[in-house]
Write the structure tokens for this entry.
Amino acid sequence: MVLLRGLANTGNTCFLNSVLQVLFHTPCLRLYFSSKHHSTHCHKQVHEECVMCVLERLSNRMNDTAERTHYITPTALIRQLSHLNSAFVVGEQQDAHEFFLCLLDELHNCCAYGYTSAMNESPISEIFRGQLTSQITCSACSSPPSPAITPSPSPSITSSPSTASSPPPPASPPPPASPPPPA
């Protein structure tokens, strides 16, 4: 499905628009937005709007066939920039990757409230969280590498849950190297 509308650049907001396009073209997230699940269960008061509510509304507007414009200005999100991070100043150039990570963390926090899980999960972490795998080889004995699986502490590292496989169990550490024979 292709979005029906683009986003207006209101002066140095291309970093924001590019991140929104990525999020709005993520199929699992677009389905979540279109379900309006978050806004119907949001813990914020009626006169307040969390960032997830803003993005849900914006995503649904971008796909609304009744909308008459060819582009939408993400004004409500632009107003919340400084609440995401004080470094994000309206009208100044920003780093898209930094904004993406900050926005994912905020969306996770919006959704984690009341989410039933002991693992600090949310729909955002289910879509975007990944795992790092590292291999360490002993330089003294060149023992074979033992993989170590490390869950990411935030939803900032992307991995599609549909393509992610179950991680292998962590390998036990290699035995300590024997001391060299006496000379």
